[in-house]
Amino acid sequence: MNEERRLKGALWHTVCQIVNDETNALEIPQISPEYTAALTELVIQQLITIGSDIEAFAVDLRKKKTITMEDIFLLTRRNKDLQNELGKLSTLKTL
Predict the structure, then answer these.
(1) What predicted TM-score, i.e. pTM, was given to this entire model?
(2) CATH label of the domain that carries residue 62
(3) What's a single GO BP term from this record (predicted)?
(4) Contact 29, 4 (CB under 8 A)
(5) Residue 30 has what DSSP assignment?
(6) Contact 29/65 with Cβ under 8 angstroms?
């Protein structure tokens, strides 16, 4: 099995677990496998886009070879709540 297929399988498993946990917590009917597969594909496409954007911010804008938290914050600039959470995490990691 190639690496991409293995990662997609692991992501699908994680998405299934989150969907199951959330449907149980919210007491809503079971979600179809097709929904979970579509959601997993959406997550994969979003991750690909995020990876490309972060790489572009690092390489094109700053001529760097290393992605930094500054690049991540640039990516999340429209989501202040996410920026706040990432800021908390980055502070914890540097202490």
Answers:
(1) 0.71
(2) 1.10.20.10
(3) replication fork processing
(4) no
(5) P
(6) no
> What would the two tokens of residue 59 be?
């390489």
Domain carrying residue 61: 3-94
Find out whether 77 and 83 touch, Cβ atoms under 8 Å: yes
Closest CA to 82 of 67, 69, 95, 66: 69
Q: pLDDT digits over 39-48, tens only?
A: 999 999 999 9
* Per-residue model confidence as pLDDT tens digits over 9-33: 999 999 999 999 999 999 998 889 9
Give me the number of domains the chain comprises: 1
SS3 assignment, position 78: coil
